[in-house]
Amino acid sequence: MPGLSINSITKRFGDFAAVDDISLSVPDGKFVCLLGPSGCGKTTLLRMIAGLEEPTGGAIVLDGDDITRVPTHKRNLGMVFQSLALFPHLTVGENIAYALRIRGASKEEQRKRVDELLAMIHLPDFANRPVAKLSGGQRQRVAIARALALSPKLFLLDEPLSALDAKLREAMQVELRQLQQRLGITTIVVTHDQREAMTMADLVVVMGKGKILQAASPIEIYRKPADAFVADFIGITNLLPAETDKAGRTTVLGAAVPGVALPSGSAKATISIRPEDIHFSKPGAGAIPGTVSFVRDLGGTVETFVEAGGTTIVAVATPRERPNVSVGQAIGVVLPPESCVVLQP
Amino acid sequence: MRREPPRALADYAPLFFPALMLIVFFVVPFSIMIAVSFFKRNPAGFYTPDFVFDNYARFLTTFFGSVLGFSLLLAILVAVCCVVIAFPFTYLLTKRSRAVQTVWLVGLLSVLSLSEVIIGFAWSTLFSRTAGITNLFVAIGLMKEPVALLPSFWAVLTGMVYQALPYTILVLYPALVRLDPTLLEAARTLGASPVRAFFNVVTPALRNTIVATLIMVFVFALGSYLLPQILGRPSNWTLSVLITDQAIYQSNMPFAAAMAVFLVLISLALVGLTLLAGRKESAL
Question: Which pLDDT score, from 0 to 100, does residue B282 have?
Answer without folding.
Answer: 52
